[in-house]
Every structure is written in structure tokens, then in C-alpha cells.
Specification:
Blueprint lengths: L12 H6 L1 E7 L3 H11 L5 E5 L14 E2 L3 H5 L3 H17 L4 E11 L5 H15 L6 E2 L1 H7 L8 E12 L1 H14 L3 E4 L1 E9 L2 E9 L5 E11 L15 E12 L8 E5 L6 E7 L2 E5 L3 E2 L12 H14 L12 E10 L13 E6 L2 E6 L5 H15 L31 H11 L3 H7 L15 H10 L5 H8 L2 H4 L8 H12 L3 H18 L8
Parallel strand pairs: 1-2, 1-10, 2-7, 4-12, 10-18
Antiparallel strand pairs: 3-6, 4-6, 5-6, 8-9, 9-10, 11-14, 11-15, 11-16, 12-13, 13-14, 17-18
Length: 529
């Protein structure tokens, strides 16, 4: 367990602020976390700061897919697809239990066009991944994979394989690996301004949102990895087009799926998907210009809710899904580089890296390619650090976690599947997590794939500053449980309040704030009627 993330770890913050760093990374999403890991494992003294919580922005609100970008191939972005497929395969190999294969099924109906081009694209997809799959299934074979799709005029279906993850846990695993290599990472520390000497950036003025103090932190190179906020500190770089993607979370029993089902929306032909995720069924996504201030949390609109429900009702007519079936909603803002397309869905997902004296900035990109983005950023850093030499070849994404000791025995109720999950999400800390588990805490929280032990560990060792950190990002209970887990709050409190060291007044305040946040941004939008 990294001492910096324990309950008393914040006391180390002033000492960290006095150091001079090789690299100061601003932004605690997947891009910043990837840069921190690749820098630290290559010998740089690196500090990351995030103004909110780790993965607070896009990196906890994505569609949770680690995919090769099949639709990017359709738009002619062969390089992006090749890079994405290779990174997907690396993550599947190096992060089992965190990144897992996910089959997709696409129903094809009589009279629909595009079957041949779709299958041709999948052939290229397989070639890039070094695999070969059968993609076309006849109606009865397809219904065995996706039994709840509409059967009228069903001509067959197309199947293929991508991957899925818990995006917030991917960020946390990456940060923990970086700290194992000597890096430091702090949440609720905001960069106010850049420090400059004779025009060269030499660090930043940082504000501790927990303790309230300001610090002038020196760094040889500063990296802007703030995603949708890119450029706010220095006013340069490519123009971004923030796009909002909204999602629904349903109980698995209400929309039971073994495969992810992809469909073309009956209204505009856009792709929409539904797939099993963390004991629930996740449905998404929209792709709209986000015109609200980035400082406030994104939320689904009534129009987006109706749009996604219409897609489900068209694809699964016999299930009669309505908004009362929805457990939760969430919306994220994608940091897409503006390409001038009228249709937001046609904008590319490439990333851009640029630099000036003492500063490197990253814009755009996608979850799957975070390691490739990090290495591209470090190539610019290398130019500015002439005494640092590294070939920047890709290595393993994560180190293999050691087998848990737990005093020579595994806790009661620990299955091989649960062990795989914990090692994937927590890496080298999985053994300590299991050792800390109390009696019965390897049991799963009803309606989820999360054991109670993960809650205890997060409260003890993962830099939780607010209740929503615990329930929306360290675990995903706020998405998986109705009303954000309100019915389980007494047990959550009994388990986590002693670990967090909060008195009763603090807990009551946090619980009230969390409930208000959940209603405003993770529940159903108000109906104008």
C-alpha cells in the first residue's frame, strides 16, 4: 500500500511540494496516469496532480469499451484502428481481470444494406489483430447468442470480439503502478498558473483543495494532460470540440445479455449498444455537442434518455423497457479535436501532442490508446531533457501481480474468478486487500460483482476524500444500485467510516452531498410534463 494514499498520507503533501521534479503532470485521467507510469518506470522523478478526484472527468464516464475502433476503419482512419487494435491486445494480455473480452452481436434484417462492407471491415480488423473469427451467423445461430432481439424479418447476424473494462479502475491501477516505480499522485490539487522564467515554463502554482494552501512547484518539464480542459492554462494547442456521450444502466435481469448487442438507431442510423457490465447492463451512447460549462458535471438530458430508450424498444420490443427500469445514468465529455464535421459522430479520435520550452501538451485521444499517447508525449519530453535517454519502446502495460499470501490461506468465499478480478483491479495490492478483508467480506454486494472487501480497501488505502470518490469511482456502486446505493448506506457506513476517520457530522454531511449529486447527475432527468 502506498503511504501517500492512506488516511494520514496528506501530511506528506508539503514535503512533495518542496521537491524539484523532472516531470509535473497536470490531469488525473487515463492520459495523465499513462504518462506518469511510463515516465516513472523509465527513471524520471514524476508528480501528477488532479484538481478533482482521479478519473473524475471523462475517464470514469466513458462507454467502458477497450476497442479497436471498427467505425474508424470505415472512415478511413487505418492508422488509428491499427494502433487501437494492438493496444487492445496488449491490455487483454497484461490486465486480465480488469480488461476482458466482450463479444458483440449485430442483428441484420431483410432489406438492410451494408452487410458486405461490414464483413469486409471485420476481415481487416482480424488481420490487424492477428486473429481469425467467423462473423456471419444464420438466424437461429444468431438468436442463440442474442435471444431477445426482434425476430421479424431477421436475416441473420454479425458477431465480433472487442473488450471492456472498468475505466475508473484502469486509471487507479495505472496510478498505483506508477507509484510502485517512485512517482507521486495527488487528487484535489489544482494547477492555478504556470511558472515561467525568461519565457520557459518551469512548473506551476498548485492549490491544495483539501488543506487550502498554495505551493510553487518546480519541474523541468510540465505536461498538460487535462483532457477536455486542455489549453486552459496556456491558451494554446488545437481547438477542441467537447462531445457528450450519455448512458443508461439497467438491472441485468431486466435486459439479460450474454453478448453485447449493437444496433442502428431507427431514427438516425447511429450505432447504439447494450452489453453486460459489472453485474448490470450498460446502454449507450449519444454523441452531441456539449455546450454547458466544463466545470460542472455533465448529465443526461431528457432528449437523450428518450433517444436511448427508443433504441432499446426497437431492438427488444418484447421486453417493454421503460424509464422506470433504469438504475442510473451517466454522461461524459469527450475531448475530441475539432475537424469541422457537421455530424459530431464523424469527428476523429486521434490525439495531438505539441510542445514549447518546458511544456508538453496532449489533446484528443481515446481510452484504448492511452499507452501509445503517453509514449508520444514522452518523445517530446525527451527532446527537452537532453540528459535523459530512453528508447521509449513499449513494455508490458502492467507488471504481473504476485500471488496473494494471506497467511498461507485464501479467505472464505474467494473464488478463482474473484481473485482474477481483484488482481486485475489492484495489481500488487490485491494480497493486502485480501489480508484486510473481514469475515464474509469476500461476498459480493447484491446486484454487483463488487465484494465488500473492495469498499474497505478503497476507504483505507485509495485516497478517498469524498463519499462520491468511494461510490462512483473506487467502486461503481453508485451506478449499479438503485438510488446510488441508498438502501445499503448503513452497512457501507459501518464498514467505511472507521477506515476514513470521519466523525458522525462529517459522514452525515458527505451522505447528504452525495445524495444530492446523484439525483442531479446520475438519476433520471426531470420530465417536463
Amino acid at each position: 500500500m502506498n503511504a501517500l494514499w492512506r488516511r494520514d498520507g496528506r501530511a506528506a503533501l508539503p514535503g512533495l511540494m518542496e521537491k524539484e521534479w523532472d516531470l509535473l503532470v497536470i490531469g488525473g485521467g487515463i492520459t495523465g496516469a499513462g504518462i506518469l507510469l511510463e515516465a516513472a518506470r523509465r527513471g524520471l522523478k514524476a508528480l501528477l496532480v488532479e484538481q478533482r478526484d482521479f478519473a473524475w472527468g471523462t475517464s470514469s464516464r466513458s462507454s467502458k469499451l477497450v476497442h479497436g475502433g471498427l467505425r474508424y476503419l470505415k472512415d478511413g482512419h487505418l492508422h488509428l484502428t491499427r494502433e487501437s487494435v494492438r493496444e487492445r491486445e496488449s491490455l487483454l494480455r497484461d490486465a486480465p481481470g480488469l480488461v476482458e473480452p466482450q463479444g458483440f452481436a449485430f442483428a441484420h434484417y431483410a432489406g438492410q444494406r451494408g452487410r458486405r462492407s461490414f464483413l469486409a471491415g471485420l476481415a481487416v480488423y482480424d488481420l490487424l489483430a492477428g486473429r481469425r473469427e467467423r462473423h456471419w451467423l444464420r438466424p437461429q445461430e444468431f438468436l442463440a447468442r442474442a435471444p431477445n432481439v426482434g425476430q421479424a424479418n431477421l436475416a441473420g447476424g454479425i458477431v465480433y470480439t472487442d473488450a471492456k473494462t472498468d475505466d475508473a479502475r484502469l486509471v487507479l491501477r495505472t496510478l498505483c503502478e506508477a507509484m510502485d516505480h517512485g512517482a507521486a499522485a495527488l487528487n484535489y490539487v489544482a494547477a492555478r498558473t504556470l511558472l515561467r522564467t525568461d519565457g520557459r515554463v518551469g512548473g506551476a502554482v498548485l492549490h491544495d483543495g483539501v488543506g487550502g494552501a498554495d505551493y510553487a512547484v518546480r519541474a523541468r518539464v510540465t505536461v498538460d494532460a487535462t483532457g477536455a480542459w486542455s489549453g486552459a492554462l496556456h491558451g494554446k494547442g488545437p481547438r477542441l470540440r467537447p462531445l457528450r456521450g450519455s448512458h443508461l444502466v439497467l438491472p441485468a435481469w431486466r435486459l439479460p445479455l450474454a453478448q453485447a448487442v449493437s444496433l442502428m438507431h431507427p431514427r438516425d442510423g447511429r450505432p447504439v449498444f447494450a452489453y453486460p457490465w459489472e453485474g448490470t447492463t450498460l446502454v449507450g451512447t449519444t454523441d452531441l455537442d456539449h455546450e454547458q460549462p466544463l466545470a460542472s458535471e455533465a448529465r443526461i438530458t431528457r432528449a437523450e434518455l428518450d433517444y436511448l430508450l427508443a433504441a432499446l424498444q426497437a431492438q427488444f420490443p418484447q421486453l417493454g423497457i421503460v424509464e422506470e427500469d433504469v438504475l442510473s445514468t451517466f454522461a461524459g465529455v469527450r475531448p475530441v479535436i475539432a475537424g469541422g464535421h457537421a455530424d459530431a459522430s464523424r469527428e476523429g479520435r486521434e490525439h495531438s501532442v505539441w510542445s514549447e520550452d518546458g511544456l508538453v501538451a496532449v489533446a484528443g485521444g481515446k481510452l484504448t490508446t492511452f499507452r501509445a499517447i503517453a509514449l508520444d508525449a514522452l518523445k517530446q519530453v525527451r527532446v527537452q531533457l537532453p540528459d535523459w535517454r530512453d528508447d521509449l519502446r513499449p513494455c508490458r502495460v502492467f507488471a504481473p501481480p504476485p500471488p496473494p499470501a494471506c497467511g498461507g490461506r485464501l479467505p472464505a468465499g474467494l473464488s478463482s474468478g474473484l481473485l482474477r478480478r481483484l488482481q486485475g483491479r489492484h495489481g500488487a495490492s490485491a494480497g493486502a486487500l485480501l489480508a484486510a478483508a473481514g469475515e464474509g467480506e469476500c461476498a459480493l454486494i447484491p446486484g454487483t460483482e463488487t465484494p465488500w472487501a473492495e469498499l474497505r480497501w478503497a476507504a483505507r488505502a485509495e485516497a478517498v476524500q469524498r463519499l462520491d470518490d468511494l461510490l462512483l469511482r473506487r467502486t461503481r456502486l453508485g451506478l449499479q444500485l438503485r438510488q446510488g446505493g441508498a438502501a445499503l448506506m448503513p452497512r457501507i457506513r459501518a464498514l467505511c467510516q472507521p477506515e476514513l476517520g470521519w466523525d458522525d457530522a462529517r459522514w452525515a454531511r458527505e451522505e447528504q452531498d452525495y445524495a444530492a449529486l446523484w439525483r442531479a447527475h446520475y438519476g433520471l432527468p426531470e420530465n417536463p410534463a
